[in-house]
Design a protein that fits this description.
This protein is an alpha/beta fold. It has nine helices and 14 strands. It is globular, with a radius of gyration of 19 Å.
Length: 321
């Protein structure tokens, strides 16, 4: 059985603690190398995770002819530059969300993908989880009547000035980090694009990042609304309302990999067996490479999500994060 040989750019927490272990459990993924600008850090991560190769620069990993695909979990401002360099090196790319800092950057990445004839996708793992696929199926089935509203909340508390989420110039802030989730998932549920965007942002006086955002997205069928914050009690929940029924997703974004998840449909509970959405994401992307099919969240979809993000900042009268 042939596996796709992956290389990882950087030793970010999300990579070493969540994504790499999850992909290593997959049937179609082989994590063959990891790179860091700090070679001892790369070697330490490689040793801890059983990765055969460690590089002291991203360039060395991209020059490795054995690497077929790259996972890019670098800070937001490095998503497009290093994804483009990976594409130019002939590598497929799974890049963390948000795909870019702007619509213009996303278009540059699409052009690079098309020129290099590789596959590039955005890492919205939640969109591959069975609970969301089921929620979308139910929302469109008529079981809750006509779909009208998607609403949600996503928050955590983090005021560490060294954390990349709190550094405005490299793409920090709540909308870029977590607000992008209810945006992409409401677009998925409505199977449409917003026709109107209304937003209010509150910025941290020290970091200048958006620490609290409240957003309403107007869709042809109804509305989506959400609040996200980097300085509130940690909490997450999503609701889908129709004219005759309701769906509640209990743990919509950080679905645990070690216990079942649940959604509530009217007065019934649907439970989903233990699964890891990062494993699913890696498997689907690897199969897309092996079978030459579409990746789970292609750049065309990422462009639409980034368009909404830009409209949110424009509506709130603020420049992007």
């Amino acid at each position: 059985m042939r596996k796709v040989r992956w290389g990882v750019l950087g030793a970010a927490n999300i990579a070493v603690k969540k994504v790499i272990p999850a992909m290593q459990r997959g049937e179609w993924c082989e994590i063959a190398a990891i790179a860091s600008r700090d070679l001892p850090k790369a070697r330490q991560a490689a040793a801890a995770l059983g990765i055969p190769k460690a590089y002291g620069s991203y360039e060395e990993l991209l020059a490795d002819p054995d690497i077929e695909a790259v996972y890019n979990p670098l800070p937001n401002h490095l998503h497009v530059p290093w994804s483009i360099r990976a594409a130019e090196a002939g590598k497929h790319v799974l890049c963390e969300k948000p795909i870019a800092l702007s619509v213009a950057e996303t278009r540059e990445l699409i052009a690079a993908r098309d020129k290099a004839h590789v596959k590039i996708g955005e890492a919205f793992m939640a969109r591959t989880h069975p609970q969301w696929l089921r929620a979308a199926e139910i929302a469109r089935s008529g079981r809750i009547g006509e779909l009208r509203v998607v609403s949600g909340h996503f928050s955590y508390f983090n005021r560490d000035p060294q954390n990349v989420r709190n550094i405005a110039e490299i793409g920090g802030g709540g909308i870029m980090d977590i607000g992008c989730y209810p945006i992409t998932l409401s677009r998925m549920i409505f199977a449409a694009e917003p026709v109107g965007v209304h937003a209010f942002l509150d910025r941290d006086p020290e970091f200048k990042t958006d620490r609290l955002a409240s957003v309403i997205l107007q869709y042809p069928q109804g509305h989506a609304s959400f609040t996200c914050s980097t300085q509130l009690v940690p909490y997450q929940r999503m609701h889908i309302f129709g004219t005759t029924g309701h769906i509640e997703i209990e743990i919509p974004f950080n679905a645990p990999p070690d216990k079942p998840t649940r959604i509530f449909v009217n007065d019934e509970v649907e439970e989903f067996p233990v699964c890891d959405q990062y494993t699913i994401q890696g498997e689907l992307f690897s199969r897309a490479i092996l079978d030459d099919t579409e990746v789970p969240v292609p750049l065309e979809d990422a462009l639409k999500n980034m368009t909404v993000i830009e409209e949110i900042f424009r509506s709130a009268g603020n420049a992007g994060a």
